[in-house]
Amino acid sequence: MNKKLFLIAFLMTFILQTGFSQNLDFDKVKNERINVNGVFPNLTVLGASDKDRSESGIGALIPWADKLWMIGYVAHIQGSRLGLYEVSDDMTMKKHPQSVTGTFANRMIHNPSEQAIIGPHFIDKNGNVRTSEELSKHRLAATMEHLTDPTNKVYFITMEGLFFECDVNTLQATKLFNLKQELDIPETAWIHFKDGHTGNGRVVVANNSYDERDFLGESFAGRLAEWDGNSDTWTILEKTAFIGVGGKNSNIFKGKSIYGNPIFATGWDKKSVILKCYNDRSKEWKRYRLPKGSHSFDHAWNTEWMRIREVQTERFIMDAHGIFYELPMMTYGGKVWGIKPISYHLRIVPDFVFWRGMLVLAGDQTDHGVGQPQSGLLFQNIDDLWNYGKPTGWGAVWQDEPVHANSTSDPYLMTGFDKKSAHFINKGEEDIEFSIEVDVMGNDEWNTYKTIKVEPNGYSHYEFPDGYSAHWVRIKANKASTVTVQFVYN
């Protein structure tokens, strides 16, 4: 036997006889964190298994004070065991002593006081936690910057539409509005406020109330609304379901914002996803339409906190009806630029952040209907989002509705999808011509691509050639009629 073989045999014998008998090696194996495709089972929030078991979701995540903090939520503040957790870089999780079981999905960094706010908890830069007893009694949907005293106060919105301001020093909370009353929401509606954002001298809030009555046109309970911080009244921007509001308050250079301080809000109606945009260049709200990746989201309860988040510096991701989008925060010249679909997905994602070099996605996996309710985290590289399903979806710009002669539809997103087709239905008594207009650059400059003629009470469709795309597409009808124009991307 040569020297190399002898040395290898000696080392293997030594390891077999001594290495596995050492307590240190056993402990190492025992403490190994199980990781299944980015899921660590030990980082799971578990609800109770009793008859009062409730939903168990992870409502918000925030990196702060060397930890990843997360807050669990139960349905209607009914349930037990969930609360405030902190995750360490060794992938261990512990429940904080200040933990409160409730329905919480809010988070915000308050820079003036150097505190992270998550649920009813205020966490200082050293990881010390204080809890607002008053706010812990409410289902908290969002925390927003204060308009008139941003150094000392913040706003909170509850799912029931109660709008509070809270002193970040004393934690005293004061109710300012009941938005169910202020926004003229029908008494019979399920109130379901989900998000809010402060920017451009306004607070914008979203209520995603939506059920079969909205689909049938019997009730429109959803709202997108704004308030200037001084008046006693709110302005209603949309009367349909809205769920996500986000934006970037950019740096000011020589008295002007760098990017236009955009605000984006996502919602939907029976036709499609709606994207509302505001920036300090155009100084007006504009409406766009996007495909629905799935109809599974078409109820207020089924949407679960689809967010618009800055996941890396100057990089925003938008989640809307089963499709992730890249959402650049530049609005040069007042125009919305570069919205691009990333992928189709099935996961319910109440929040997502970057932490320790990983994109972390919260979850709401199972509720009381399938056994012990529980939810976990998914750790990935951000580029893994592109490995999900290819972007696919459908949506209408008009759906069995009357339009006037020479009416023009909202812009509808076209870029980033493969096969594209459009379907036209005319329920009128005259021929109608539908002009397909495209915005190639995404700069609100429109050109006629093709005209489709549809007979009275007729139907036609058009398949776009392989490889053809523009940024936005819209439709113009030359006569008054009751029409449907539906896009299908797959």
What does this protein structure show overall?
- Strands 33, 34, 36, 37 and 39 form a five-stranded antiparallel sheet that branches.
- The chain is mainly beta and about 500 residues long.
- Strand 21 (about 265-270) and strand 22 (about 275-280) form a beta hairpin.
- It has four helices and 40 strands.
- It folds into two domains: about 40-385, Methylamine Dehydrogenase, Chain H; about 395-490, Sandwich (Hypothetical Protein Tm1070, Chain: A), CATH 2.60.290.
- It is globular and about 70 Å long.
- The longest helix is centred in the N-terminal third of the chain and has 16 residues, at about 5-20.
Features:
single chain, Hypothetical Protein Tm1070, Chain: A, 490 residues, Methylamine Dehydrogenase, Chain H, 2 domains, mainly beta
Layout: helices, strands, pairs:
Blueprint: H1 3-18, H2 23-30, E1 44-46, E2 57-64, E3 67-73, E4 84-87, E5 93-95, E6 107-110, E7 115-118, E8 121-124, E9 129-131, E10 140-145, E11 153-158, E12 162-167, E13 173-178, H3 179-182, E14 193-199, E15 202-207, H4 212-215, E16 223-227, E17 235-238, E18 241-247, E19 252-253, E20 256-257, E21 263-268, E22 273-278, E23 286-290, E24 308-312, E25 315-320, E26 323-326, E27 340-344, E28 352-355, E29 358-361, E30 374-376, E31 378-380, E32 393-403, E33 407-408, E34 412-413, E35 420-426, E36 432-439, E37 447-454, E38 458-463, E39 472-477, E40 481-489
Antiparallel strand pairs: 1-30, 2-3, 3-4, 4-5, 6-7, 7-8, 8-9, 10-11, 11-12, 12-13, 14-15, 15-16, 16-17, 18-21, 19-20, 21-22, 22-23, 24-25, 25-26, 26-27, 28-29, 29-31, 32-40, 33-39, 34-39, 35-38, 35-40, 36-37, 36-39
